[in-house]
Each structure stands twice: as structure tokens, then as C-alpha cells.
Amino acid sequence: MPVALVDCNSFYASCEQVFQPRLQGRAVVVLSNNDGCVVARSREAKALGIKMGEPWFQARRRLQGQAEAVTALSSNYALYADMSNRVMRILGRFSPRQEVYSIDESFLALDGLPGPPAVIGERMRATVLGWTGLPVCVGIGPTKTLAKLANHLAKQHLAWAGVCDLEALEAGEVERLLAPIPVGEVWGVGARLAQRLARLGIDTALDLRRAPPAQVRRHSSVMLERTALELRGIACLDLEMVSPDKQQIRCSRTFGATVSSLAELTEAITSFTSRAAEKLRAQQGEAAAILVEIRSSAFRRDAAPYAASRVVPLAAPTADTRALVAAARAGLNRIYKPGPAYAKAGVILLDLSRAAERQPDLFAEPTADARSQALMATLDQINRRFGRGSLTLANARPAPRWRRREQFRSPRYTTRLDELPVAHC
Amino acid sequence: MPERVIRSHPARPEPGLGFSVGRAHGGVLSTPPVATTAEPLGVLSGLATRSHRPLPRLRWPVQAGFPSPAEDDQDAAIDLNELLAPHPEACFLLRVRGCSMVDAGIDDGDLLLVDRALEPSHGRIVIAVVDGEFTVKRLHRQAQVVRLEAAHAQYPAIELKDGQELQVWGVVTRVIKSV
Predict the structure, then answer these.
(1) Which residues of B are tagged catalytic?
(2) Can you give the residue ranges of the UmuC domain (chain A) (predicted)?
(3) Looking at residue A400, what is its pLDDT?
(4) What ipTM score was computed for the predicted complex, to two decimals?
């Protein structure tokens, strides 16, 4: 069963380069929320030695004069999400079986399609590049784990022009390619597991492929045994074509500036709960409880850190923003303490279930549910149409102090009519 | 003589939708991956990616025994998305600034629909990258000569010199303007 893993190269940075051609061929980094850490690097930025996850102020200091050659941008998630949707839809034209694995990665089953897998892979690469301007690499293998490794190889070997089909190679050749890959690079093997494996003498992807599966299982887990089998070309993991419903929905943020007053925290919690409730309704879910958490800045030496959280159960499972916000505010009132400079707050919706599968409440007013659903559907529709946050509960203020810093965000080129790219003439 | 002409790729029909074109990273057209680009497989493309367009329901009640004479002739409503953006994944909107294309009906402030799935062939209006910025011009590419022509008497064409590469970002298919 040939499987392809298609992965966008330096996805966030590439999205920026598509709409700002002057950034092509230059070092570009994209920063995390609040412009803190580097979360994406163009090839040129990697060449300068900028690390993934590195705080930007640190990288800038280290680079000294060279830092001026680097363009640092805030995350522009509206743009990345739209470009991701385009890429995933283009790839979906090639195969009926697609697993969207992350914002910039997709597995596709290639069996039963006309043409050799490598040719299909090359068409995918060329079509995504032509239609969106985004470069991708394609890894092909008999299992998902090998497809992932093939993708890793395709990125390293420039001569392969972005496509690597392990199935087209002799077994000896595959082993020669796996030998230098550290076992920690294998999908499903993290850094910690890699350390444990090193004690068993398993240092590389090839070592794990050759290790007896039963022994792997004894020393580790069934999951790792599966990984070892997958490295041998025995498929153990299926494509997950429908993403499973989330078991929890979290919305939390580090504030742009710390806040102390209950009023401001209430605004923040209302806004986060509204966003989480929107996500909940998007998966046709209901929550039976909500967790509220607040946390003071960990970087202040003048005050002891304070962090607190509380779970508030709902009277009945609900997806109604008003009920969820009321519960979240009740929780916040219990844990709020005047004094600390709060740096972070968040909510988590818990005990999620599908709305359609709920037993109706014997004591509830029968029409209340329908009215709530109609109101929430209208709320979501208005926010989809006029932009997130257009219509909110009165407590959620549109441009508060705690909103995240995004000083260097590029325009939302593909989702806002007033931020379109300009064509000079 | 150094190669300076945008090579034309053989048109590759994309299933029922138009043409696809291959580009190197960033769309530099002088290094075409000709043999490698091809159409996505036809079998699976199509309507799934279009906007949702339900059949309209009849507005009047259908009486038993007396069916509406229009029932069999109901058509789906006209879908502007389908008209304007036949390849939704490859279509982008850009805003015009300047007046060098007024004789082609492109005015300051207009919206341009750009389809990156189309081949930038001779005579088409394209978005080209000039000095790191998007520029809208008419592409002239014939007999080894490549230039970007304005549609205004006072603006000269941009000639490509030997060895210069022209990066075409996309092909303009529609102009949207307020009247």
C-alpha cells in the first residue's frame, strides 16, 4: 500500500514569501504568539543558524550585524490557515483517501491510482507549487512511518527535487539511507524514548528496523513495536480520514501586557470561552464542565508566583456561549485574588459529547434548547461572515490591553478584502 | 544566444477546468519542470471543492394530483464563485494601484482575479514580479522577445534583457469594478 506524506517546506515563512516576493531568497523568521520565539524559518534563516523555538531577542543578539538581514514577522494564522486549506484541497484531488495530519502535512493513499507513485508524487509537488507558490516535499513508502522518513530524506537530498519514493529502491539502498538517521527522527520516537533506546544499542532508524519486534515490545511498548514493524514495511497504522472529535477544547493565551483587575480578567475569560464554545459547536459537541485557570508572571522577582484553576460543572451539557461564560465567570470569581500581575489565563471545555447523542433533560423547558441553538447558530454565522469577534457577549471587549502582541504581522492577504495584495500598474 | 525567453509548456488539460502550469520555486519560468508537471488525476477532482450550491426549493406548495409545470425544469442558481474562480485553490484577489493599464479596462482601485492554474501565454494580462513587487501588465512573448506592455500611451513597455528572468506570479482572468 504506497502512502505519500506531503509536507510544506518552511510553511509559515513560505506563505509570507508568496505574497511578499521581495522576501524570496532571504532569511525570514515567523515568531510565536506575542512575538516571543521563532516558530518558522526560511531556508536562508536556517543557514544563519537560527534555531526552532529560540527566543527571537536571543537569536538577534547572537547574530549581531547579521540580524539586519533577517525579516522577523508575527504569526499570521488567518493567512496560514487559508493557504493550508488550499494545499489540502489540491492534494485531495489526487487521492480519495487523505489524512490531513497537521496544518502543513497530509498523508495520501496512492494504491489503486493510475501511474507510478513517484510520478503522482511529482505531479502533487508541481501542482501545489504552481497553484499556490508553496514548495512541498513528497515522501513515499509502504507505510506511514516510512513515508515520513522518505519525506525527511526528500528534504535533505536536493538532487531528488523534492520527491523520494522508498518503494522504488532496493532493500539494500533503503538500509543505506536509514543508517545515518538518528532514531529520534523516526515518527513516534521522541527525544526521551531515543535516550532509552540508545541504552539498548538502538541509535538509528536502521537499528530500530533490524531490532526484533518482540524485544522492542518487551523493553518499551506496543506502539514502538508497531513503529519497528512499520520501518520494515509492514503497515500497522491506517489513514485517519476523519479527524476524531477533540476530547477537550482549550483556549488560553499569554497576555500582551499583564493585567491585575478582575474586570479585565473577566473580559479575557469571556473572550476565550466564546472562542472555545465556537470550536465546540463546530464539532457539534457539548461540554459538561469548564476549567478556568489564571497564572501570574513567572518572570517577576518582586512577587511570589500565583496560579489557580477550578473546574465548574454545568447543570446540563451545553454548547451555549452564555451558559459556558456564566460558569467560567463563577469559577474565575472563586480563584481571583487581587494583587498578582496576571500574565496568562485560559479555559478548557471538558467532558465533551456529541449534542445529538444526549438524553433530553426531563425537567428542562422543551423549547429552550431549540432557541439556544438558533441563537448560537446565528452568532457563529455572523462571526464567520464579518470576521471573528464581530458579535460577542457584552463582556468581551474588542481591543483590550491583554490582546496578544503582533507587531510585525503581514496583511491577511487572502481572507480580508481590505488587506489584499497590491498590484502596481 | 543565452536563453531569455519564457518557454511555453505544452498545455496540460486539467480535468474539465482549464490548464495547469508548472513553475519552479517562486515561479521562475525559465526553468520549467516540463516533463514533470501534469494534470491532477481527473477521477477525483470536481465539485467537491466548489461552493455549496443547493438546488432551490420550490416556493409554492405542490398540490397532490396537480404538479407544478416548472418542477422538471428547475435549475440550480448561477454560482458566481464557479464563474469567477474555476480553480478556487489557485485563485487570488489583488487590488490595483496605478493607471498604466486603463486602456485594458483596469483602473485604480479595481479588484483583479488571478488564476495561478493558467498558463501565462502571449497576450494575456499577468501579475509579474518586478523589483520585488507585483506589477500588472500584458505579457508579450513571441519570437524570442519577452516584454511587459502597459495599456496606456505614456507608459513604456518593460523589456527583458539577455539573461534576465521574468517571474510571472499568475494570470489575470477578471476585473471587478464598481460602476
Answers:
(1) 100, 137
(2) 3-190
(3) 65
(4) 0.73
